[in-house]
Design brief:
The structure is a homodimer. In chain A, β3 and β4 form a beta hairpin. In chain A, α1 runs parallel beside α3, α1 packs across α7 and α7 packs across α8. The first copy, chain A, has about 210 residues and is of the alpha+beta class. Chain A starts with a strand and ends in a 9-residue tail after the last helix. Chain A is globular. The relative contact order of chain A is 0.16. In chain A, strands 2-1-3-4 form a four-stranded mixed sheet, with helices on one face. Chain A has nine helices and four strands, in the order βαβαββααααααα. Helices cover about 50% and strands about 5% of the residues of chain A. Chain A has two domains: about 80 residues, Glutaredoxin (3-Layer(aba) Sandwich); about 120 residues, Glutathione S-transferase Yfyf (Class Pi), Chain A, domain 2 (Up-down Bundle). At the A-B interface, β4, α3, α4, α5 and α6 of A face β4, α3, α4, α5 and α6 of B. Chains A, B: Keywords: Isomerase. Chains A, B: Its EC number is 5.2.1.2. Chains A, B: Belongs to the GST superfamily. Zeta family. Chains A, B: One of its GO terms (cellular component) is cytoplasm. Chains A, B: One of its GO terms (molecular function) is maleylacetoacetate isomerase activity.
Chain lengths: ~210, ~210
């Protein structure tokens, strides 16, 4: 397998965790989102992923994109260990937490969105940072509301093994720290993040441990 | 089943389509996103969905939120007719198209984001509209790149039956029209949207056909 990745990309980080949790070896192909005006926007990469977004995973003749679709694919094609529980209700809970991050926080703070803010809209660096922090803090509070005091979240987001939800949560908490967001209002999120980061699969997937880290 | 819905909510519209495609009867409970300063933000509704987002689906003792998690749940709990193809590669393709809409377009143009733009950032109505159109037009171009000339998309987004991808695409095209976005660059998207809207399940789910339509 070949993973087109950027060390700081939150979506690539999710897939790296999933691949590691499943003990799937992969070749990392770095795609720099800043250098050369963004290598992800060049024709070379657009032949891999026409949307020009990172990550993309190539598995034999299959060309996959969208991090959550990739992780669901991995879970179906390489079922062990599972990243979703067996029961539909529990699966819905795990997916909802993953989507709380993937739909409610991350897209609003994506690089291209921040660029539009400071470029087209002439927003200041300070306002941009306040925007970033606002969506992370509000979004993680929604995750906290799902996990706090919920016996299902006794160890990880759901149960005693990491799931798709944890694959999404840890990269988001990483970004939250990077941009100095408040985390004191989401103690369960912080506790789960710490629990995840004791596992080698999460450690190996961290931005600072990537071959293209700066 | 009880669906907490708002006629114009794109995410609620997705779930309405899915429920109709599966012939599942439901009681629509309207939650007005503007009236009373947003009924979704009141304690009453937060007891249903602490994140204060629409839609939420209550199925017996289960309380579900996040539209894509709800639709995946429906597909697992009520498998016929399926909204995802059986093969993992095809499922990944359908999910990727759904996420192109649900992660790359919709969150950036959500009501709360537009409010932050005009409120906190003091962006003009004209700039807000340009922002809206930009993300829809760029985002739908990414969908077009997946479906144009792809034999898998001969009728719907994937194959001869509507899937999760169509449940997401049609509400987004509805919004695109509502806000006067360009669509001439996405002819396959327009063709698939028209195909979907010949089906009663899509017609009955449309905003103008909801009990709370204005």
């Amino acid at each position: 397998m070949k993973l087109y990745t950027y060390f700081r990309s939150s979506a690539a980080y999710r897939v790296r965790i999933a691949l590691n949790l499943k003990n799937l070896a992969y070749e990392a192909v770095p795609v720099h989102l800043v250098k050369d005006g963004g290598q992800h926007l060049k024709d070379d990469y657009r032949r891999v992923n026409p949307a020009g977004a990172v990550p993309a995973l190539v598995d034999r003749d299959l060309n996959l994109s969208q991090s959550l679709a990739i992780i669901e694919y991995l879970d179906e094609a390489y079922p062990y260990p599972p990243l979703l529980p067996p029961d539909p209700a529990a699966r819905a809970r795990v997916r909802a937490i993953a989507l709380d991050v993937a739909c409610e926080i991350h897209p609003i703070n994506n690089l291209r969105v921040l660029k539009y803010l400071t470029g087209e809209l002439g927003v200041s660096e300070e306002q941009k940072l306040a925007w970033y922090r606002h969506w992370v803090e509000v979004g993680l509070a929604a995750v906290e509301a799902r996990v706090a005091g919920n016996p299902e979240s006794w160890k990880f987001c759901h149960g005693g093994h990491p799931t798709l939800a944890d694959c999404c949560l840890v990269p988001q908490v990483f970004n939250a720290r990077r941009f100095g967001c408040r985390l004191d209002h989401v103690p369960t999120v912080v506790r789960i993040d710490a629990e995840c980061r004791t596992l080698p699969a999460f450690v190996a997937a961290a931005p600072e441990n990537q071959p293209d880290a700066e």
